[in-house]
Amino acid sequence: MPVQTLPLTTASGPAAPARRTAGASTGWASVIVPVAVGAALGPLDVVLKHVLPAPFGHLLNSSPVWALAAFVVGWAVRARPGWWPGLAGTLTLLVAVESYYLAYVVLRDRDTATLLDTHAQWWLFVGVGAGVVFGTAGAWAREGRRWRGPAGTATVVGLLLTGAWVELLRFAGASDTGYRHDTVQAALVLLVLAAVAVVLAARSARQRVAGLALALPVGLGGVVLAGALGMA
């Protein structure tokens, strides 16, 4: 009788389709995650900013928290092209902006023109820049490479330090006691988040130390940029 041979199960055999399937699912996840996060962030902001106690409602509607979402998405997605985390961060924020204004149309009976009015266009413009920067920073921090790792960690920590400083500037310029109290609380929460980011957004002690050292000038630059954009 003829000799029967079993099919090979090497890397060049049947195992290859499995790898391709895994790669395809990872690719889809890299698209679904930013869209889902952005679609959730916008409506949650609209609903919860009037429900959560101070300072959390205010912080949910703040630029640092939205940029932090892009960073987390950049950290989470696992796609081979080096440019994709930045694009994923941008996609997150663009979807978040439009879902935010769409929630106002649906829940607050706003005109549909708000979806593309000057305010929406401005935040879409900001979302492109912030998404690229913080999405890429998230991926760099996760990779933990020699200089990219500390740079990614420094970017997110500097973002939160900038947010805390901006809140303190608002405290200094406010006269209402309640508002001043809220801004101090917001600054403290952002400082706590910065400390947490130093620990979590790094893969090694070296990355944490270098990232924290770089975060100080990054935060200072962020304050200057926030002032130039009228956000401070």
From TrEMBL:
It holds the Pfam family DUF6518. Keywords: Membrane, Transmembrane, Transmembrane helix. The chain crosses the membrane at residues 27-44, 56-77, 84-102, 122-141, 153-172, 184-202, 209-231. The keyword Nucleotide-binding does not apply. This is Uncharacterized protein. It comes from Microlunatus flavus.
